[in-house]
Amino acid sequence: MFEVMLIGLLVLVLILIPLCIGFVAIVRWIMRRTRRVSGQTPVTAAEPLPPPGAVEKGVVRTESLTAEDTFALETSGEQGAPSEKAREPQLPVEDVVETPNNTDKAVLQDQLKDSMMFRYAVVAGIALLLLIPLLMVESLVGERSSLYREVVEDISRTWGGLQQLSGPYLLVPYTERVERERVVPVEGGEDRLVRETRLEASYFVILPSRLSFDATLDPESRRRGIYRALVYTSEIGISGQFTLPSREALTRIVPALVDVDYARSFVVTGLSHPSALREASPFVWAGVPYSAEPGTQPFENLPSGFRVPIALNAGQGTFDFSQRLALSGSGGIRFATAGETTEIKVRSPWPHPSFQGQVLPASYETSDTGFSAVWSVPSLARSYPNLGTLHTWPRHFTEFAVGVDLYQAGTHYKLVERSVKYGVLFIGLTFLAFIVFEMGLGARLHPVQYGIVGLSMVVFYLVLLSLSEHLAFLTSYLSASGCIVLMVSCYVGFALRNYKEGMGIGVLLVALYSLLYTILQMEDYALLMGTALLLVMLAALMVVSRNLARGNK
Questions:
Q1: How far apart are CA 80 and CA 386, in angstroms?
Q2: What is the reported pLDDT for 169?
Q3: Could you tell me the residue range of the domain that residue 183 belongs to?
Q4: Angle 499-521/423-441 helices, nearest 10 degrees?
Q5: Cα distance between residue 447 and residue 454, in whole Å
Q6: Helix, strand, coil shares of the chain as percentages rounded to 5?
Q7: In sequence order, what are the residues at sequence separation of 6 or more whose Cβ sits closer than 8 angstroms to the Cβ of residue 310?
Q8: How far is Cα 402 from Cα 381, in angstroms, rounded to an integer?
Q9: For strand 192-206 and strand 163-184, is the pairing parallel, antiparallel, or unpaired?
């Protein structure tokens, strides 16, 4: 989220820069034009003086004097010569016709059309308007992604969701003496306090002294329509050892202990999605196989799983156990660390593990062919004891677990969504390249052509989204980008009537789309690459606009 906000802020700043520059340039030009027009003084036509002698003869000359006539009059000795002021030459004066306002507006419009700053402002406005279809495409990507997640969740419910294996736990029934007081009402007298003693039954919860899990995850893809979901099948081997606590240890937990019924014990194993259990071998207890039963009663803190009735021999203090399970799931797997010492081994051919839980693996290996991880967790790392009763046992004890998720580096929807976030940046870079071409080669594109090129770059993401739902992302990206590059380069070449400029734009777009794909693949360095690209865009903008102040003088 921070990356998107940072890039959006920088892009907004870079777009506002040419807008502000263009606005200031236009205002300055209008002010200079206004001052130039207001400084002109209108010239009025003067009525020419009649020549000498015209009044005497009753004739009035209407034509104005030439310079030769004026000189002849000045040198003649005739009476009635005009005064010195009158003898000054009278040049013909043309009538001044005021320029209509419409002419000034037309000149203003022509100069605005020729102004580079005005073109910058128009191009920046087109880039801002392209945010509307870009946001519509982003909304469509989010809608398709939500539908994909719904389908994946539905597949997970039927196949098996994130599996968590808890236990096994040994439940041994016991009886304790409980004393309680109650008040008995007495007719006609005071109430009497009665103390009662009775026997109550419950279960001890005993955790294994040693517990081991050995799991193998085999990923596979399940398809529904055009959507695919990553699931897995797992083979899990469970083994360990139980050690019966002494009478003194049991008495510390239950001081009023009367009796322990070892013959009616249960071994309970929790499984988050028992419907995804494909196969369960017999539970081998001290070398004797036992059949499992559905349900976790009486261990109600485990919502789902299975149990095995066991008739214990109190004289034998240590019991080994083992079992193999085959189950399916999706997303990942978790193991509750139930033993005093819990060892977990997980292997899978999936190359992208994401280790989860409160404890990281003690050792692990990852490669292109898969991963393997080993956990070793002592009982002191968790917050619940190795021995307790159902009354005092914590309800959320299964939250302390470790495991791994089969991480998908990025679905095509995530990649398309990330590419759309760079849409404004790439549109701005393309328009900036067009401006550089215009300034360097003297060619010009119409604002409508800028808009068509920008819309084609928006359509690129729509084509990419459509193709990625049916093809691999790389194939979809190459097809969509190749189509857009070919169309835009041909369009620009025909518009400028110069195939070399069209080829130059095509090379530029190939470089931009190659850079975009590199950014999408570099998840850890996406912010760094995007910031570097913004710096390059800012430097190019500085180079293009370095002579603006000089040109406005």
A1: 142
A2: 95
A3: 160-408
A4: 150
A5: 11
A6: 45, 25, 30
A7: 170, 265, 266, 267, 285, 290
A8: 12
A9: antiparallel
pLDDT tens digits along 154-174: 887 888 889 999 989 999 999
**The amino acid at 12:** L
Closest to 480 measured CA to CA, from 471, 288, 319, 306: 471
Interval 55-59 mean pLDDT:
42
* Residue 125: φ, ψ to 5°: -65, -40
Domain boundary among 408, 435, 462: 408
3-state secondary structure 446-471: CHHHHHHHHHHHHHHHHHHHHHHCCC
Q: Would you give the distance in Å from CA 142 to the centre of its chain?
A: 10
CA 67 to chain centre: 86
Amino acid code (one letter) for 192: R
348 occurs within a structural domain: yes
DSSP-derived 3-state class of residue 54: helix
Write the CATH number for 222.
2.60.40
Spatial separation of the C-alpha atoms in residues 398 and 386, rounded to whole Å: 14
CA gap 30, 159 in Å, rounded? 72
The secondary element (H helix, E strand) that includes residue 346 is: strand 341-348
Give the pairing of strands 163-184 and 353-357: unpaired
Could you give the C-alpha distances from 526 to 29, 111, 320, 370, 427, in angstroms and in order?
43, 44, 52, 25, 18
Query: What is the pLDDT, as a whole number, of residue 215?
Result: 96
**Domain match, 434 and 402 both:** no
DSSP 48: P
The domain boundary residue, chosen from 373, 408, 443: 408
Let me know if residue 258 belongs to a domain.
Answer: yes
Digit-coded pLDDT (tens) for 337-358: 999 999 999 999 999 899 998 8
List the single range of 116-120, 143-147, 226-230, 488-492 with lowest mean pLDDT. 116-120
Q: Determine the Cα–Cα distance for residues 416 and 229; give it in Å rounded to an integer.
A: 18
403 and 431 share one domain? no
Residue position matching structure tokens 């349900």: 295
356, 405 Cβ separation under 8 angstroms: yes
**One-letter amino acid identity for 287?**
G
Residue 244, SS3 per DSSP = coil
**26 vs 262, residue with greater confidence:** 262
| Across 420-427, average pLDDT | 82
Q: Give SS3 for 293.
A: strand
Q: Which two tokens stand for residue 239?
A: 């083994």
Cβ-proximal residues to 269 (8 Å cutoff; 6+ apart), any chain: 165, 166, 167, 168, 169, 238, 292, 305, 306, 307, 308, 323
Burial of 187 (0-12, 13-18, 19+ CB in 10 A): exposed
Q: Does a structural domain hold residue 96?
A: no
Please tell me whether residues 333 and 350 are part of one structural domain.
Answer: yes
Burial of 386 (0-12, 13-18, 19+ CB in 10 A): middle
Examine the pLDDT at 309 and tell me if it is beyond 90. yes
- 225-262: pLDDT as tens digits: 778 888 999 999 999 999 999 999 999 999 999 999 99
Q: How far is CA 512 from the centre of its chain?
A: 20
Residues 430 and 402 grouped into a single domain = no
Three-class DSSP category at 118 = helix
* Structure token pair of residue 101: 């306002």
